[in-house]
Fold this protein.
Amino acid sequence: MRINLLKSENYTSNGTKKRRIQAIVIHYTGMRTLQSAVERLLYSKDKVSSHYVISRNGKILRLVKDNNIAWHAGISNWFNFKNLNKNSIGIELENKGHQHGYQNFTNKQIMQLIKILRILKKKFKIRNINIIGHSDIAPSRKKDPGEKFPWNKLYKNQLAIWHSLNEKFISNFRSKKLINFNKENMLKMIKKLGYSKVFSINSLDKNFIKAFQRRYRQQLINGIFDQECYLILKNLQKFI
């Protein structure tokens, strides 16, 4: 696997101290062209970067060394992690995003992503539950990598979590209102998946629900936690 080396100006050096990396965060670039995205990640006054970028034709760029801290996560929460830059590797996938014409990810792009995830997972002993999307850790701000990202394919390659329910069967429960459920238990199940800061005992945050749906129920993103979402949530507890 060939990796092309560039050097971003936007990172924090970790010196000779070994960084404890516990998560990988997947993003999309969200810009009209690859060139504009890479230039922003290399030089921008916005002070953003990522460790890797994967183009639509499968080209891999490394912008920040693994042991240095790229500025990709921003204000974020996952389990007990806060502001995940210091704990994570960031990977950007070339895609125009929801603002500029959201695209399907290419097969070449995903196959290269799978290769690099395998290397990073082994190198840093990262749990599958901690291979996540930007919207998982910052649901109030971010939508990426979005509902077209093939999390199920990563799961089949042992690189993420996904439910094991029959899609046709659970679709029968789509848009059906939740009844006779224990709200406190449901919130505990959500927290056990890593979503630690996106709900209260009284209500689920709508941005969280959409993030959950973009991740696990990609056919309908409506911000309503229905019976189908609940079945998926319960099934995912096997990874805890």
